[in-house]
Amino acid sequence: MPEGTNVAIKVQHPNIWNKCCIDFFVLQHLADFLESIPYLHLDYLSVRDCVDQFAHAMLPQLDLSLEGKHLRRFNRDFADNPQVHFPVPLEELTTSKLLVETFCHGTPILKYGKNKDENTREQLAMLGLKTTLQMIFIHDFIHGDLHPGNILVFSDKDTGKMNMTLLDCGLVIEFGPNTHETVVKILGAFTRRQGRNAGQLMVDTTTSKTKNALDIERFIQGIEKIIVEDAEQGNFVEHIGDYVTDICYLACRHRVKLDAAFINAALSVEIMEGIASSLYPNIQVVSTAMPLILKAEMMHQLPFSWSKYRSG
């Protein structure tokens, strides 16, 4: 690193490990209590699974050297995209309790509101959405804390294009080859408006479901109805936050346990879609999502190992 380079330093808070363990202990018991309430069938929402998955992702990041590894992975994944940036960790100065990384300049993305021209806002909306969808469908390595405060933007003086820098990469979501393939198939079916296929995939891949064939059929029909009604409004991916609530209701009512990975992927899309829509309300999510879904489906069908691709 050249002498005089500006750096940012993150320091581990004293006793943070004990505090986080206590928090997750409470959350796990609360999740168990909610799932045990009779007749509500909240266990089919995978409440405990979601807490466990969050703990599995959250606790390791208390080792700040892990965030350094995440930054290297993100920089590798987006090495061919000159508009997407991440801080670069200084490995020789980073420890489990101290992270040293390059300082990134930029403006918080929400500052680019209605006072900016429409073309700039459209560029940023498309860039943010495509970046998130690539993380989900292509890389299977998703920034787990994509709130607006962690997104800085700036204009490249040479090209005039808007650039984006993503900060605070300690929390990531990574499904693994088999779960990732399932998530791709389910979201792909929703995007293609194949409601019955999406419902059947959710039933086939669940770890717990009712043995009542009528309940299973009604769950699938409910998913199909969501897609039919969505045809009048736009596309599932563009309203995914609204539909996740409906899907959760169907899961509880008909006792089909939802995969926590699907919920996490859906919420990741919803967060960035919300930011993108605030910048450019006319954004078309499906036209960006579909090519990436097709590419992910083809990658899972290739003869080489998916894990080799992921490890680089």
Describe this structure in words.
55% of the residues lie in helices and 9% in strands. The strands form three sheets. Strands 2-7-6-4 form a four-stranded mixed beta sheet, covered by helices on one side. It is globular and about 70 Å long. With 312 residues, the chain is α+β, with helices and mostly antiparallel strands.
Shape: globular
Helix and strand content put the structural class at alpha+beta
Q: Give the integer mean of the pLDDT values.
A: 86
Strand content: 5-15%
Assembly status:
single chain
Low-pLDDT stretches are none
User: How many DSSP H or I helices?
Assistant: 11
Helical residues, percent: 40-55%
Number of strands: 8
Give a quick precis of the structure.
With 312 residues, this protein is α+β, with helices and mostly antiparallel strands. It is built from eleven helices and eight strands.
Topology:
Elements: E1 7-11, H1 16-36, H2 47-58, H3 64-77, E2 84-85, E3 98-102, E4 107-108, H4 118-139, E5 142-143, E6 151-155, E7 162-166, E8 172-173, H5 177-191, H6 195-205, H7 213-230, H8 240-254, H9 260-279, H10 285-301, H11 306-311
Parallel strand pairs: 2-7
Antiparallel strand pairs: 1-3, 4-6, 5-8, 6-7
Helix pairs in contact: 1-2, 2-9, 4-9, 4-10, 5-6, 5-9, 5-10, 6-7, 7-8
Tags for this model:
312 residues, four-stranded mixed sheet, 11 helices, 8 strands, 55% helix, 9% strand
